[in-house]
Design brief:
The chain has a three-stranded antiparallel sheet with strand order 1-3-2. It is elongated and about 80 Å long. The longest helix has 17 residues. Helix 3 packs across helix 4. Helix content is 48%, strand content 12%. By secondary structure, it is of the alpha+beta class.
Length: 92
């Protein structure tokens, strides 16, 4: 027997390996998060620093929810708040 004989090495003769025949699963694009951290919301929407973001959240200028010890910003509430502020400015 030779070293390429499947009886000795377990290798296949010719053909396609299993790895090459696997099909890639189509992945859906990741969904945007429903909540983000306070510093991320302040930076993304208002251009604030970390401390400025927490100060704005404490004053109620950034909507937050508390989950255990964690403060999170609901993205929809933040965007709705900014949309309403834009409507008020346009009415003036």
């Amino acid at each position: 027997m030779t070293t390429l004989d499947p009886g000795i090495t377990g290798r296949r003769r010719g053909g396609v390996t299993r790895k090459a025949t696997r099909r890639q699963k189509a992945r859906a694009p990741p969904e945007p998060p429903l909540t983000i951290s306070v510093p991320e919301a302040g930076r993304r929407y208002l251009g604030l620093s970390r401390k400025g973001s927490y100060d704005a959240a404490r004053r109620g200028e950034i909507p937050t929810i508390k989950i255990g010890k964690l403060r999170r910003v609901p993205v929809r509430a933040m965007e709705r708040m900014l949309d309403e502020a834009g409507k008020l400015d346009a009415a003036d």
